[in-house]
Give the backbone structure.
Amino acid sequence: MLILAIDTSAVASAALVSDDTPESLVGSFATEDTRSHAEVLAPGIEELLAETGLTGADVDALVTGVGPGPFTGLRSGIVTARTLAFVWGKPLYGVMSLDAIALEVAESTDAAPEFIVATDARRKEVYWARYALAAGQLPQLVDGPHVGFAADLPELPVYGAGAGLYADVVNAVPEFSTSQPEALSLGQFALARLAAGEQLLESTPLYLRESDAQVPGPRKRAL
Amino acid sequence: MTHSQPGGPLVLGIESSCDETGVGIVRGTQLLTNTVSSSMEEHVRFGGVIPEIASRAHLDAFVPTLREALAEAGVTLADIDAIAVTSGPGLAGALMVGVCAAKALAVATGKPLYAINHLVAHVGVGLLETDDGGRPASAALPENLGALLVSGGHTEILRVRNITGDVELLGSTIDDAAGEAYDKVARLLGLGYPGGPAIDKLARTGNAKAIRFPRGLSQPKYMGTAEEPGPHRYDWSFSGLKTAVARCVEQFEARGEEVPVADIAAAFQEAVVDIITSKAVLACRENGITELLLGGGVAANSRLRQLTEQRCTAAGIRLTVPPLALCTDNGAMVAALGAQLVMAGVAPSGIGFAPDSSLPVTTVSV
Ligand SMILES: [Zn+2]
């Protein structure tokens, strides 16, 4: 099974993953910055297909990170995935973006049995979720995702760029202090879950915050 | 590129610069479909367009709108010769959704993509043939063409020498768009959102001469003369007008009198329409413009149409107003301009461009 995975919850990234390939990796790209998704995502995907000599017809399914992440960036990946899936006539699944980091934690040597993944939510807050780990299994989401202040996180080791930003108030794991959700891990996670017969999400974004719009109150009348 | 079909290139246009998700398909100058999904209802309780709400709605509306447009036009994506998308000006987060969708469409289909200017697209729509019994279609835009665009997001007077490459901004609002002023004043008067239709309707029962509101930027220091134009000869300002309406309402309330809402609506509308049309016609006369196209959602306003027609006729200017569904933001206008670019042999934009919320009108395509 060949999956095209896309995530723009933090950086812009895309990956082709397949269960026929060692480590599942067929090809991938990721940007460093978190603000140029609209420019770089489509060219990145086009290049990825060209480099691997694959086309939409070869792809069996698409997977998009559904956040949480800054809204505008997050939408750029989801609308890209939805449009590609529509044109190619392929199924589209959603995966919670923090799962990508959780899988990398699970595969690392110093994984804690219970841990937090956190990314930057801007406005001095983090997006976070709590995971449990059992030997030989995929990380299990036990709480979240949420958005809130880093200082209010449960007292567990925290992985991800959200921990690195607030290392003064959380138990940040240094090796992961700049980690962002990326499509490669997201796609690998999706492959593993599908292989285990587990369900994935729909492509509905997890905004976690309202639009900030205020319903105007009644106008004050002059006396 | 080749477009073998008779009648010109088949172009799909995508619009998402404000609160309308639009997908239009044209063949040359022939309109095949104009499919629009609006999030207007979701903004009503806020009294204005909330960018984040509009962006969320674009994300969910895009694929269904695309599917519907293809079905209505009876074409497949394989038939399409080119894709066009609004890349600016507009709300940044809203533009992003349409631009990313258009790029994905280009990647998935291999079709060329044109990133185009929303304002110029409002003019391009005037080239579409219409079957509403109106003005017969013209194969090319007339010479000496101007465009007056009035909507909730913009108020501009343009000179269009060549729609695919030579468009000049003669004047624009320096603060609120006219439609925005309508929304704010409608709120002051308790008339709800959107303000344009509400004020237009109520104004018909009011006396426009009961109160006189200021005409922004009409003083000599802003206007200058034709030989020595002032700094804002063809520009508009509506924020002072809004303040004047607020003060007027307060004065009636302070005196314990009933607020003459219909008279205020009529006088406000007269102030807006008077200054828009007088400056637009002045700009036309002084720039040799003899053909004027009226576009944007406020083209629906009965008084604006009436006074523009009247003043254009008096000045010997021929006025064209496209059907209303093509005046408000839509994908067909994007497709119409896209088709012009294809026919003029303009190179596509590729897929590496960024949306630009303040794209200048001189940039017809990126
Ligand atoms: Zn517009």
